[in-house]
Amino acid sequence: MRPEMVYSLFLIIIYILLLIWNMFKFRYIRLLGIFIFVVYMAYKAAKLYGRVYPEKKEQAIRVFLWGTLVFYLCFLFSLTFGVGRDAPNLIFGDAERLKDYLNNRFNLIPFRTILSIFKDDGSISSIMVNIVGNIAALMPLGCLFPALFKRARRVLPFLMMTSGVVIFIEITQFLFSVGACDIDDLILNVAGAFIVFLVVMPFRVPIRNRMLGYEN
Fold first, then answer.
1. What global pTM score does this model have?
2. What is the full DSSP assignment across the chain?
3. Which range in 3-12, 28-37, 39-48, 168-177 is most confidently predicted, on average pLDDT?
């Protein structure tokens, strides 16, 4: 893909995100826009460094991928504990808080929350946030894990690594009584990452060669 096409696609994505933000007033869309912009600029910097020092282009791209993974995990952390959330509090420090969390924000029954969203609510904003948002949340791992870890290029290890990230987030949310600890989040998050994994893996080598500036 030519740089002009990448830049155009970047602008289109930003435009779509701004439209969604205007429609639904999602507060985290601004953070997402900043994340995409920073990652894009970091990629361009890595490509430029690879042109100046051709012998280090692979190292530059790998550093970019590692930096993107770390930055992305920080972005997830900010969504989990920052935007629109109550201040974190250890759940075991208050019996009433623990009881309220278990009754209203804790679910271990698969598809219970998903079905209730469509059955009891069904609004576009609720579906966008709780269904589409959870599917999209971990999609970058479908690219980043296989690019950085050889083991994650196989289905089972990839699913285990992705599930581990989600389980860590869900347990952390429970321990600090933030958001909801829901098995449906695990299902949707992993499904989104796995979709990207299935799409990207057949084209992993051509994408790598394109990023490094090699001819296919």
1. 0.79
2. --HHHHHHHHHHHHHHHHHHHHHH--THHHHHHHHHHHHHHHHHHHHHHHHHSGGGHHHHHHHHHHHHHHHHHHHHHHHHHTTT-PPP--GGG-HHHHHHHHHHSEE-STTHHHHHIIIII--HHHHIIIIIHHHHHTTTHHHHHHHH-GGGGSHHHHHHHHHHHHHHHHHHHHHTT-S-EEHHHHHHHHHHHHHHHHHHGGGHHHHHHHHHT---
3. 168-177
Could you state, in order of their start, the residue ranges of all structural domains in the chain?
1-85, 87-204
Residue 176 — pLDDT band, cuts 50, 70, 90? confident
CA 167/CA 126 separation, integer angstroms:
23
